[in-house]
Amino acid sequence: MDRNSLLAFLLIAVIIFLMPEYYKLVYPPLPDTDSLIVNREEQIKAVPQPSENSTPPPYYDKLEEVASSFSVRTNLYTAEISAMNGGSISSFILHNYALNDTESVELIDNNNINNLLVGFRSIDGDDVSLSGGWIADNDYDINIYESEASVTFHKTVEGKQITKALTFYPDKYIIDMSVDLSAIQRWVSQGVSTVRWPGGLPLTEPNKNDELTYYQAMVFQGDETYYPKPKEPAQARLERMDYPTDWIAIRTKYFISALVPKIQAPGSEVLAIEENGNKRYDVGLFFDVGRPFFSKLYIGPLEYDRIKQLGKNLDRTMNFGWAFIRPISKVVHWFLLFLYNYIPNYGFVLLIFSVLVKILVYPLTKKSHVSTKKMQAIQPMLNELKEKHKNDQRKFAQAQMGLFKEHGVNPLSGCMPILLQMPLLFALFTVFRSSIELRGAPFIFWINDLSRPDAVFDLGINIPFYGSQVAILPLLMGVTMFLQMKSTPMPQAGGQQKYMMYFMNGFFVLIFNQFPSGLVLYYTLFNVLTILQQKYLTPQSNLKGLVNKSSG
Fold this sequence. Notes:
By secondary structure, the chain is of the alpha+beta class. It has two domains: 3-18 and 334-374 and 413-551, no CATH class; 68-319, Beta-galactosidase, Chain A, domain 5. The chain has 14 helices and 22 strands. The protein has helices at 3-26, 33-36, 208-212, 304-309, 326-340, 346-360, 362-377, 379-388, 393-406, 416-434, 472-486, 495-511, 517-537, 543-551, and strands at residues 69-73, 77-82, 88-98, 104-106, 117-122, 127-129, 135-136, 142-143, 149-157, 160-168, 174-180, 188-197, 216-221, 224-226, 239-241, 245-251, 255-261, 268-275, 278-288, 293-301, 455-463, 467-471. The strands form four sheets. The chain has a nine-stranded antiparallel β-sheet, with no helix packed on it. A hairpin with a 3-residue loop joins strand 16 (245-251) and strand 17. The longest helix has 24 residues, at 3-26. It is elongated, with a radius of gyration of 30 Å. Mean pLDDT is 80; it is low at 22-65 and 548-552.
């Protein structure tokens, strides 16, 4: 690997390594609520559950200490549904995703168990949460393997009946929800209620610090996605926005919970708290109680095709990198899934993918190698010019450019292939690091999860930049980089420059130790192919011929 290419890779590595910190800083903040909320007392007010010491209005039913529940089993998940809140999800276990060797992923914990809560402010100014007193129209477990099934919950408020219904599907992570509060409309201030998802989602991955960089609430309004920044408890407050809202969502690294109303909601609310490194998000949607409210709840994996099918730009919850990288990331993601349909092992998919990328950039690579070899061949002439014009840098520069032109040498061509590949490399990093398809995907031998480092030994201590484990693939990648560097002699490479190259090689090994093994595998395969390509394209015996041909 020549100096220019190695420097380009170094730049890529540094940017990639710092990318998590970048994401922490650049999420656009929520709009200034003071500019959005004018005369809040006259605006829509959807409020959280009242405290235990608050006095409920006359039509606020006493909470049941124990609510009835039943399970719903589909091809994709097993859910426990409680009558509390008119159908809260008290458990949601995914069949196809493992938490560890013995457990499946659970997307409900004690923090978010009180979900799908409906509340409003009464015309008397009381905060009302419709928690207890709901009765389901069935009290038995449901198995859904062929067609959908619905459950309706009923609640009587001062002689008036309100309903909430949930519909489950056998092969979807979507739960359709409808809420009808029209019978008590005259008791609801401004005629607007709210449905809330408090507590976010539980973290599921071993590396909690890494997953927290992805843990985020999102609100989509006016074709813009807002990412509320968590604040300390003392500074945190409920942010209410009465802009039309297409959806609200909370995502972790690989999973998501999203409320997508059938028609735009009149507004939304978010509470974001961070304490002792832990984050908590409470989100809610406003809705008009004068008519039934319909919404889809998607709770499950961040699978692009499933998310895309929901429409309304919900795919913006997917992490595909910066705006100019996203189209490339989507193409890379699609192509990897396409290859997987025929090669059901993502390790071999990456092998095929690296070969195809090499073929794609072959013309640029060939031109770069030829130019590099020409530079080697004319090096003695450059040394003569440097000695001749050692006291006049301007004349040396002019003579040097003339020599380059005479022999058809482009000094920048050596780094052009890698620079043109930089968007692809960023896209690969993004896809490999956050695509759920690679989560738990094995390759061969000791590589049992391409989304995580291929660690074989735990050091017991955390080393800055390196981490606490020893991974094999970064070491192999370092060897291939060294061999590639040795197979490409560098003009004007003195002892100091060579030591710098060795240092950068070691630096790569250091920082890639914490990267997903799929990404490191791709770079390693790419380096091996580059070495083979160099030997094929530029045999040493042709150096003089190249120069003679150019100058002839």
